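Risk register update: the risk of archive-format incompatibility is retired. Evidence:
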Amino acid sequence: MSRPDGRLPDQLRPISFIPNVAPHATGSVLVSFGDTRVICTATIEDDVPRWMRAQKVEGGWLTAEYSMLPYSTLERKPRDISRGKIDGRSSEIQRLIGRSLRAVVDLKKVGQRTIWIDCDVLQADGGTRTAAITGGCVAMAIAFNKLMNEGKLKDFPIRKLVAAVSAGIHEGAPVLDLNYVEDKGATVDFNVVMTETLEFVEVQGSGEEAVFTGDQMSAMLDLCRKGVNEIVSLQKAAILTADKAAPADLSSLMAAFKR
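Archived output:
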């Protein structure tokens, strides 16, 4: 089958990570899945939520916030603050990001700290939640490496890396990593979160006014396993080079948008 951008059914979009894009965050990265681009940051505070202190819960906490900037879509998206509350989609996605990252972190090793993962979508072309989880993991690892280098952590808290990717049924065939055109026309849409050892963290899947068979579901999950395996290799390379990389300058960010 021919996909709108010419990719093979099991082919990811070009994926890249530009670290250190937000110098005031403990860790940061600009992640790109094709034309979807998300700035992910990890900010670590030496405090925990009040409920943890009240219940005397050991260790730290990790939480996430997600937003699509007004200019990230073809039509301007109003900021949540203009409506007085976060929209349901953003709330659901940021809970998903938090769950996905907490699944692979030993919070007791974090100590009495809170890790804030902020994911801001600069440009949306499908798969913003999967890009946010994938980039959020990289930003978190960069932040923990920084604390390890500063002697503030004794043990690395991340048990395994985690990544996410989408799959779906488009024009009757299973495809990996849907862009906006495919996502809009898909009859089935899956978002899959997995660890680097290909264990499932979360699977979100539904038919869009359609049904799907067990064989189709198996095919989509197989595509996601292949995709996550490739993504994790890119994550590891980005994390290993981040502490040696200078803060990202404007030229490197502009280059990311010209690809």
